[in-house]
Amino acid sequence: EDKVVQSPLSLVVHEGDTVTLNCSYEVTNFRSLLWYKQEKKAPTFLFMLTSSGIEKKSGRLSSILDKKELFSILNITATQTGDSAIYLCAGWGRGSARQLTFGSGTQLTVLP
Amino acid sequence: NAGVTQTPKFQVLKTGQSMTLQCAQDMNHEYMSWYRQDPGMGLRLIHYSVGAGITDQGEVPNGYNVSRSTTEDFPLRLLSAAPSQTSVYFCASSYSDRVETQYFGPGTRLLVL
Fold it and tell me: How confident is the model at residue B7 (pLDDT cuts 50, 70, 90)?
């Protein structure tokens, strides 16, 4: 059974801090690892990582994948209150169900 | 484009009642999926469709039915609601096999008493 585990489950920081969110995965016929941001409503796509060691960046957010250790991290630098959200990672395997296996998410709260 | 739309936004049901959650997309996406999200858990796939007339089960299909008669619509039917089906339901759609293009609808919050 595919499994994705995120840590920590929740995190409270102050504006300006840097945070690292962790995601480990066990996904059959692994294809890609995806990160989403979920505020009040639907998840929105952040990154898709397919190759090891290649950092994806978007502004203050960056992410990297380690396919040997089955691990990904999401970094957020100079956090802002608008970064407060649940961050989800999901593993995508080349299985018959063509499905994403989601972790339980990290609840990030950024205080002013 | 309206993107992915879901109705209703919120619904209260009694145990044993049936209902249909509606999902529509106007992006001509082939793939559509239904997920449920429970507190402290990620999204779990209920059913999905790779095109009109083709559906398949996901991780947690029991108690739910789907059909895909058109590209645009993908309704989710609860046959006989149970309290365990209290959840937030998200519909999503994407181009073909490009999961990174997956757009999620705003969600339907369902409470089963």
Answer: very high
